[in-house]
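Let's study a protein:

===
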Amino acid sequence: MSTAVIGGLPGTVLRLHRAALLAWGAFVAAVIVWLLYVTDVTAGSVRALKENCDPVHDLCNVPYAAYRYSQAIGYAGTLVCYSFLAVAAFAGGALIGRELERGTARVAWTQGVTPTRWLVAKLAVPAVAVTLGGAVLVPAFRWGWEANPDWMWGRGWAFADVFVARGPATVAYALCALAVGALTALTLRRALPALGVSLAVMWLLNLVLAHFRDALWPTVTRTSEKRIVLPNNVWEVESGRDADGYYATFHPATHFWPLHLVETGIVLAIAAAATTAAFALLRRRTG
């Protein structure tokens, strides 16, 4: 195959899926604009309420205003965290499944493009897009989340959406969704079933890892004869009383990165396994 044809594969993928890539770019931009708005306008209104409130004569609801602020930041975290579901749907449906179902992939393979190089191009372009998008979204969310930490009620570092959105696990889940979507599409060879199965697999993976997240790094246990009051920035796993007194098992805030990086590594390992399986399946079916 000529160099021109090889060089043209990424361009072909870009043209075919231009709308999806533009939608991804618009999503990244919208989340950043939302974070800027919340940390400027919404936070400003909370500060104004606090400064102008006369608690003696006025019924000021500063806690409620701060809670609404934390909710607004939390919405951005939810979108960033679960953006991998959109990637899974795209990969299983439009990216791979639709071309296999319609037979356009086989047409490409008969025109000098090997199946392996076709799949490389199909995965490489969106992989770069989601990595670059995640590289922008993660620091943007971290900035918004850390702008007013005292107001982040119920949205601490251990909150499921915040936990993923604050680090590279965001990109890891997106890359894993891309690989799982490709593998599912190559297995089922139909767009709609592949889309549904890809979504289900990635949702289940995230659910399982979130359930066992506290076990990914050793916890700290504190005992005392008196009731233990933990700081607000810890993740309490278990607490109670036994024959020796009170106890509390928890993750301090310093455990965020060890926990986060272990989960990121697990997700990337699954992504690598799914990618390897996808190429192996493609070679077996086209060999």
User: Anything to note?
Assistant: Residues 1-6 have pLDDT under 50 and may be disordered. Residues 3-212+254-286 form one domain. The longest helix spans residues 18-52. The chain has one domain: 3-212+254-286.
